[in-house]
Fold each of these.
Amino acid sequence: VIPGFRDAILGMKVGGQRRVYIPSDQGHGAQGAGGAIPPNADLVFDIVLEDFDKTAQGFIAYHSLDIYVLC
């Protein structure tokens, strides 16, 4: 999970919804992510926190509704 996304979901409650804007330097940065995300792209996620599992070393299960890449 990219650092900006992990930080954005902290404090969410189950069933909560949030639009998350992640600037390039907190996302994939200058290297991008293969052919899917170009270098220096900002990201926008619309997320719903469906559940989380406290027993799995802090793992948080989430459902991403939409992902936008801003170039």
Amino acid sequence: DSTERAAAESGDREPVSPSLKVAVLMGGPSAEAAVSRSSAAGVAQALAARGHQVSLLELDAACARALLDIA
């Protein structure tokens, strides 16, 4: 749109989108759960730095309930 085009022409960054509620799932039952948690922390940090509301959720039996609670 014209706002994005004007920002691009002026050399500014694209307009920031409205804040979102984001759930980042991590862990799980696999041997790679620790790697998943580490990656999820990085993703969550990047999203939060851009103004989004982030929830880190462990991928386990309580995950579905936790998703409903933060919705």
